[in-house]
Amino acid sequence: MEFYFYAVFAVQAMVLVALEFGKSGKDQITTSPAFNAFKNNYLVVYSLMMAGDWLQGPYVYALYVFYGYDKGDIGKLFIAGFGSSMLFGTIVGSLADRYGRKRMSVIYCITYMLSCFTKHSPQYRVLMLGRVLGGIATSLLFSSFESWLVAEHFKRGFEAQWLSLTFSKAIFLGNGLIAIIAGLVANTLAGTFNLGPVSPFDAAACVLAVGMGIIMLTWPENYGDQAEGKNIIDQFTKAAAAIASDEKIALLGAIQSLFEGSMYTFVFLWTPALSPYDQKIPFGFIFATFMLASMLGSSLASRLMSRPNLRVESYMQVVFAVASGSLCLPVIIQFFLPDERSESMTVGGRMNLLGFCVFEMCVGIFWPSIMKMRSQYIPEDSRSTIMNYFRIPLNIFVCIVLYNVSAFPISVMFGMCAIFLGMAGVLQRRLRVVSEKHWNRNSDVSAEEKLRDTEAEPLNI
């Protein structure tokens, strides 16, 4: 393996260690033992849930190829997963507000385990069912758990600033360290132990079963809107009205869809961008390098969110600009560097690798930051429903990209992603302006109320 890959990985690792162990007192937040116990319990559960998801990722495509399906059939299976998340997952995920976030988290585990079991069958219709179940589970993963955490955090009387600690650590572990370990475990099971491409899915089912047990034994239930006589239509109507009536929520949803749509498109594009002539490069090690970059971003986000005078809405404008610039790099390389055919990674590929690491670092900053903003702006009684509304345009976008992925050059697709990230930055600037007006207005109202209360108090002479 080329020294270049080791060098990129080593530099990121050293920066990460410096960030994690070089925190000063002002970068740390003083918490309570009760909060630490609560946070650690959630981090264990969230890590297990993400491990169940990451274990499957490296071998989904490989399993379908193993069963003899071509690229067109596999593309339809992937589209079915995102389409299911949009249609069925949105409805099922929104039920968490009414019927309980803990209950829907358990259903996530059951649904995803069933999806894993379908991988034992080579029949196309059974695999399609598995993709549908996986799409539903994905919607639950990215709504029910966060909704439970936010509600339980404030229910127990913990400070709002402490929530950012849980968010940043969850992403640091779940989207970084756990992803690297899961990739290595999956590779060991399927490759080293020669158990076949279905073995990582069996491991994922086992991990999910352990997590489900912890949820059932340690998590209390919490709910959103449980008003009598309301059905699912009323719930969706209320959530839609909240989005339409509050510009901050609408902007947040648009920002999330633009960024995540670009992120999922990047997942399909980075492999051919780094090896345009099918060069043999260490994809597993490169994936681990990306996850390390994401961990670096989440560690940086933890520092940023711990600063009381720095608001998320401000620094995220810079993050989106940097992310947009990093995905412009393949477009620039396509125009200014000549084609270079070789058996190893090209000069353009090496430059792209650096840009992609920067993008993954932005992803690591994005996740805890968007969670923090969602906890501030989305109303508690419709939290899960609104969060699943946000995923509808995202899933539509990804389905369109998957359907047309071979119709456009890679440089065009990266350029499109860069434009979307730039648009997210513009909307983020608008969100900052609107939110500052909101906070200033609330501060003025609080000051007036305090003054009136003071004037109304009788003088004790």
Automatic annotation (TrEMBL):
The chain crosses the membrane at residues 6-22, 43-65, 77-96, 170-189, 201-219, 281-302, 314-337, 349-367, 388-404. It is a multi-pass membrane protein. CDD domains: MFS_MFSD5_like (cd17487). Keywords: Cell membrane, Ion transport, Membrane, Transmembrane, Transmembrane helix, Transport. Signal peptide: none annotated. InterPro entries: MFS_trans_sf, MOT2/MFSD5. It is found in: Cell membrane. GO terms for biological process: monoatomic ion transport. It comes from the Eukaryota. One of its GO terms (molecular function) is molybdate ion transmembrane transporter activity. GO terms for cellular component: plasma membrane. It holds the Pfam family MFS_5. SUPFAM superfamilies: MFS general substrate transporter. Its main location: membrane. Mediates high-affinity intracellular uptake of the rare oligo-element molybdenum. This is Molybdate-anion transporter. It comes from Physcomitrium patens (Spreading-leaved earth moss). The lineage of its organism: Eukaryota, Viridiplantae, Streptophyta, Embryophyta, Bryophyta.
